[in-house]
Amino acid sequence: MASIREFSRKYWYGSYIGIDNYDIAKENYEKTLPIQGKRLKHGIDVRPLTVRRRVWETWHKDGDAYGMAFVQSYCQTTRDQTTKKVIREEYVHNVHPLLMFQPDGSIEFNPAWMTYYPTWDVLGALLPKGITYVRYGSKSYFKLDMPDGMEPMHMFSPGTKMTFIPYEHEGKRYFRVDCPISETKILIDRDKAKKVRAELKAFLDYCEYMIDLAPAPTKHDWQAETNAEGWLETIDWLVRNEGEEIGSKWFPAIEAFVVTYARYVYDYKTQTSAAIPVDAGGLRDRLKGHKLYGYTRPYRVEYVPIGKPFFKNGRTME
After folding, report:
1. 211: which DSSP letter?
2. Which residues contact residue 99 at a Cβ distance below 8 angstroms, ignoring those fewer than 6 apart?
3. Which of 69, 124, 193, 206 has the fewest C-beta atoms under 10 angstroms from its C-beta?
4. Global pTM?
5. Mean pLDDT throughout 122-132?
């Protein structure tokens, strides 16, 4: 697990902001004075998390819940076309709660701007003991302490709230997830891949004789290339039905490949471009490895036990 990066710092810009329970969250909100000035005059209560100038990270109250939220607070203006003066219309106040503590001790996590490094840092600093925010590459998890010493890691779905429910064991508090999300692995199916390679050999032999009959593009058309690529990635063009010697979609696939892999040479004197269509040898060189699997999708799906994360290559994290 050395490759997992843990975001468990408890200090944010020199201030301790770790929220261990509901009372601490409420106390932090009440002892932080709101930003004075025009915002407050317009009824906008902004209480910065730490540094006063960072007004987009605030302590937040929502009913009886207290916690942290990201805030977008600004004044909408228009310009008078006659006098050219700037007219202030109203203040906009958008709130995106990140971590809210409920009176019953549960914690509600609402993914907001989870693609930014500062969000990971502040989330790690806010979480109570027993919950740690961790990342491996593009994958994010919450690591929970368990009475048996295990540390299952639960993923979250962007845009979906997650609730951590507290419970006690031998006088120590732990957390569990209300609706854990199961992960799936998408792996290459060896039997399907073997069939794809066998079908590909017959398809490439067919291309040797038929690719010259496919109409070559006369000009560079981005939309045509996009449509051809999308067709190849969604249609099972390589599959032959039982009893077929030549696949029914083989020639349409050749036409799509000719459009997708055509090269263009620009003539500066005439200011025109000439298309150089792909030949059978060029197509044979391109339909290999991950590119071939991207078109033919010889995959299988495996469900992973909840709390058991895995690396991108499918290997389970030990």
Report:
1. G
2. 19, 67, 68, 107, 108, 109, 110, 123, 126, 127
3. 193
4. 0.68
5. 91
